[in-house]
Amino acid sequence: MSFSIRRLIFGSPLRSERAIHEKLPIILALPIFASDALSSVAYATETILKQFQKLHLRQDQFGIALGISIAIVTLILMVVISYRQVIYSYPRGGGSYIVARENLGIFIGLVAASALLVDYILTVSVSIADCVAQSNSALIQINSAFRELENHKALLSVFLVLIITYVNLRGVRESGATFAGPSYGFITLIVLLIGAGCYRLWFGGGALESVAAQPDPKAVEGLDWLIIVRGFASGCAALTGIEAISNGVPTFKAPEARNAAVTLAILGGFLAFMFTGITYLAVQFKIGPNESETVISQIARASFGTSMPGGILYYGVQIFTSAILFLAANTAYSSYPRLCSILAEDGYLPRQLTSIGDRLSYNNGILVLAFCSILFLLVFQGEAHALIPLYTIGVFIAFTTAQLGMVRRSWHMKPRPWIGLMINLIGGIITLAVLFVVGSSKFIAFEQPPLFGTTWFYEGAWMALTLMAIIVWVFYAIHRHYQNVDRQLSIIPPDVMKPFRHTVVVLVPSRIHRGILMALNYARSISPDAVAVHIAFDRSREQYLRDQWEAHGGDTPLIILDSPYRTLVGPLMQYLDAAEKVRSDDIITVVLPEFVPARWWHTLLHNASGWLLRLRLHYRRDIVVVSVRYYLD
Amino acid sequence: MSFSIRRLIFGSPLRSERAIHEKLPIILALPIFASDALSSVAYATETILKQFQKLHLRQDQFGIALGISIAIVTLILMVVISYRQVIYSYPRGGGSYIVARENLGIFIGLVAASALLVDYILTVSVSIADCVAQSNSALIQINSAFRELENHKALLSVFLVLIITYVNLRGVRESGATFAGPSYGFITLIVLLIGAGCYRLWFGGGALESVAAQPDPKAVEGLDWLIIVRGFASGCAALTGIEAISNGVPTFKAPEARNAAVTLAILGGFLAFMFTGITYLAVQFKIGPNESETVISQIARASFGTSMPGGILYYGVQIFTSAILFLAANTAYSSYPRLCSILAEDGYLPRQLTSIGDRLSYNNGILVLAFCSILFLLVFQGEAHALIPLYTIGVFIAFTTAQLGMVRRSWHMKPRPWIGLMINLIGGIITLAVLFVVGSSKFIAFEQPPLFGTTWFYEGAWMALTLMAIIVWVFYAIHRHYQNVDRQLSIIPPDVMKPFRHTVVVLVPSRIHRGILMALNYARSISPDAVAVHIAFDRSREQYLRDQWEAHGGDTPLIILDSPYRTLVGPLMQYLDAAEKVRSDDIITVVLPEFVPARWWHTLLHNASGWLLRLRLHYRRDIVVVSVRYYLD
Asked: Which of A387, A568, B36, B236 has a Cα at 20 to 30 A from B229?
C-alpha cells in the first residue's frame, strides 16, 4: 500500500545504470550552468540602489551606481579568466572544496565547503524570494488587488521551495532542453530591454510610463567613500553562480575543458553586458527601489510600457525573469546534494548523504537543503535582499580559496606555469580584497529591522561567518567520530572466530501454548542445554505451570523466579547477571516468544510488557535477543 | 534516571504481600462506603429544582418537590432492603455484574457491567464538577471577585481529576481513618443544618439572609403529571452509590455479611433523613437554583448566615460538602479499576487491565477512568447537572439486574426463600419501573443547550443507552478475539518438538570489520552451514569485498546479490523466498550485525537502512531475526 502510494508520487524506482550524464554541447550547456549567474542580473542592480536608499543618499547622486557596476564587471571578467585556469586544471570537475583541499589542506577545503553549503541554501532562498517579488510586480500591474499577495510573500516562497523539492525528489534530469527556453528567452528579452531602453532615452524622449522615484525627504547625505564601498559590496551579488561551470566540466562534450572554458567566457560576456545595461537604465530613468515593484519591472515599464503591444514584452520580461530565478534555485538543488555527498564520502558529513534514492537523486541532501532554505525564508520573512550580504560573503570565500589553491598548485608544478599562476594570484588577491571590503563594510549594518529590532542581526556578515564556523566545527566532530569508530572496528583480534558456547534462556509465561513450544523448540535447536525461565507474580499458579511443563516441556529444565514487585525486568536481569558470572566464555541468547495478531489493533488486547522487556534488554550488553514469532489467524 | 524520577513521583514499588485489605469495623466502614451515596444529597435536591425551572413551573408550586423527595426516600428504603439480600447471598462481594452473570446469564451481566462502567466514570465527572461548583459558591461569599472562576469551571474540574488520578496511581489505601473525618463531619453538619433551618422556619422568623428566588417571568405552566414524573426522575440521582457496600462485603470485620447489612441500613437511614430535610428546607426557603450558588449553599446561608459566628458553620458545610464530593470521586477510582480487572479476567476487556502496578493499584484502569471522566467534563463544560440523567439510567439498570438476578437465584433454591424472593421481586419491579420512567421521560429533553444547540443531545438517556450498547458490543468483540486466539494456541500438534534444521543467513556490508565477524561467529555457532549474503549496490567494490572475505571470512560461503534499485529489502526477500523453497523442513534465521554507538545521537551518523530492513523482516512470516550488537566506545 504505502509502497504504491510512493510510486504514484515519486515514480517507479530507476536502475543504477541510468545514472549516466548526458554529454552537452555548448549551446545546451550554457543555459544549464548560466541560470544561476544570469539570474543575479535580476537583483544585483536593485541591491545597490537599496543600499543607497538605506544610507539616505540623495537621488541625484544615484548615478554613481553605474561607476560601481563597471568596477564589478571588471571583477567579473577577472574571475572568469581565473576560473578558466581551474577548468583546465581540474577537467574532472573541481569545485572550490576540491581545489582547496588538494592544494591548501583540508582545513581551508572545509572552510570553502562550508561557504558553499551556506551559499547553495541562500541561492534557493534569495532566488525564490526574488521570483515571488518579480511575479508580484507583474501581477500588480494587471490588477492592483494582487497587492494583497504581498502579505503572503513568505508563504508563497515556501510553497515554491516545496514544489522544487518535490520535482527534485522525483529525480528530474538536468536536461539542456528544459533550461534552454527560459535562459535564452531571458537573455533575448534583457538584450531587447536594454536596446529599447536606450532608444527611449536617446531618441524616444524618456520613460514611457512614470517610474522616477519620489525624492527621499530624509536624503541629506552626500556621496562619500563609505557609501561607494558599501554599494560595491552590495553589487557583488552579481558574481554569484560563476563557479558552477568549473564543477560540471565532465558533463560537456569533448573536448570538455575547452568547451567549458568557452562557455564560461560567453557567460562572462553576457553577464557583464546585461548587468551594466540594466544599471545604466535604472540610473537614467532615475528609478528608486520600492517594496511593491522590482527595479527590472520598473525599467521594463519605462522602456516597453504595460499597454499592448509593448506590454507583451513587459510581461515577457517578468515571466522570463521569474523563470530564470526559479531555475537558479533548481540549480542549487543539484549542486548542494552533490557537494554533501562528496563531503560525506570524505567522512565530514553523515554517511546517509551519500545514499542515492529510488530515482537516482540524493534524497537526503535534497531534504536538508529544502529544510534549511525554508528556515531562512521564514526567519527573513521572504525578504530576499536581507539575505544577499550573507550570500556574497560565501561566494567570495569560495572564489578566494579556489584561486589561491590554484596558485599553490601552479607553484609546485615543473615547469612553473607563470602566466596561469599570475592570473590566479591576481584573481585571488582581488577576490580576497573584495571579501575584506564586503565583510568589513557589512560586518554589522544598521536601519530598518524586519523582525528582531536590529538590522545588523540580519544583514551582518557576522551571521554567515558564525554559521560557517559552526559548520566547520561540525565537519571535524563528525570526522572524529567516524575515525574513532573505524579504529575500533578495524582491530580484529586473533580469537574472533573462536567457537563459543551458547547459554540459551527462553522466557515462558504462566500458560504453555503452541507459540511457547515453538520458541522452546527454537531454543533447543540452538543449544542442547537451553533453560526455560518463568517469572512468577503469583505463586499460587506454580503447580499449574509445573503440570503443564511436565506434559509439554520435554527435558528442558524450568526455572521459576519470584517477582515480589510484579516486574519481568528485575528478576530476569538478576538471573542474567548470575548466568554471566557462571559461564564467562560464552554468549547469552534470550529467546522471547512473541504473538503476532492478525490485525494490528489486536495488539491492544495483548500484554504490552513484552515490549518493555525487549527495550530493557536492548540496552543490556553482551546478550542477543531473539523473538520467535507465532502468527495468529 | 527515568526509573528514579518515577520513584520520586510515585514512590518505591511495593511487594505483592502488602495487598491485603484491612478488616473494617462498622464505624470505619460506613464513611468509606457512604461517601458516594451521601454526596448525592449535595446535588439531588438541586437537580429536581433545576428540572422544575427548566419546565417553567411557577415558583409557588415548587413545594411538590417535597412530595417527590418522600417518594424517592421510599424507593431508597426499598432498594436498601433488597440489597441486604444481595449482601447475605454474596458474602464474597457481589456487584450487579456478578449477580446478573451468575443468575441471568452473561449477556445481562455484561449489560449491568456496561452500566456500571459508565456510572463510575460519571460519578467522577459529576462529583468533581459539583465539588468545584460548591467551592465556588463559598468563595463568592468571601469575595465576589471569585465569580471570575466560574469561567474556568471545566479546567478546575480537570485539574482536580488529575490530582485524584495521581493520588490513586501512587496507590492510596482506602483507610477508614482518612474517610472518617470528612464523612462524619458532613453528616454532622448537614444534621445541624437541618436542625438550624427548621428552627429558623418554625421559631426564628424565616431566613437569616435573603435567598428566595426571583419569580421566573416565563413561568406560566401549572403542575401536571409530566412535570412530577420528570422531577422524580431527576431526583433519583439520590440513589447513586447505594450498591457500593454489596461490592465490598469482604472488607468488613467478621461477621462480614451482618456488619455490611447493618452498615447499609444505617446509610439508608441517614440518606433518607438528609435528603428529605434538605428538600424541605429548600422548598420552605423558596430557593431557586441558580448558576453561581448551589442550593446547599443557599440553605446554609439562610440557616446559619455568612457572618460570624454562624458563618463558621456556613463555611463548614461548604468545606465538608466539597470534601465528600471529592471522596465520592475517589471511591469510583477504586471500584472502576476493580470491575475492569474482573471483566478482563473473564476475557471481556483487554488483559492489561488485570495487571497490578508498582504501588499495587490497577494503573491501567485508573488511567482509562481518568481519561474518560476528563473527556466527559470537557464535553459537558463542567456542568454537572447535565450529566445526572445519564448517570441515573446506569444506576437503575444496575439495581434492576441485581434484584432480578436475586429473584432468579432464590427461585432455584430449595427450599425456596419466599420472603427474600418477594422483597427482591418487588425491589426489582420498582427499580425497573423507575428505569422506564427515567428512561422515557429523559429519553430526549429540550431547552438550554450548553454546546451543540440542542439539549436532548446532552440530557437524553439515548446517550447512556447508546454508549452502553457500544460497550457491550466491544465486550463481545474482545471476548471473541481471546477465544479465537485461545483456540489456536491450545492445539498442540504432536510434532511440535521435532528438531528442525537451521538455515542461517548473515547480512554483511561492503566492509568486513570486527562487528561483522562477531555476527558471523554467532551465526556459525547456530549452524555449521551458515551463509553470508552481501547486497551489492556497486559492483566495482566486489573484488575488495572478496579479498576481505578471503582474509577473515573463514569457510563460510559469501553470496553476493545485485541490487539494481539500490535497496536492501528487495534482493534479500527474493533470496529468502528461494531459500524457503529449497529447504522446507527448517527455519530461516537472519542474523543482522548492528552497531550500538556510545551516544544516542551518534546513530544519526550511521546508516539507518538497517532499521527499515528490520521493519520489513518483522512483517515476514516464518523467519527469525537476530540482531548481534557490537558496542562502540
From this structure: B36
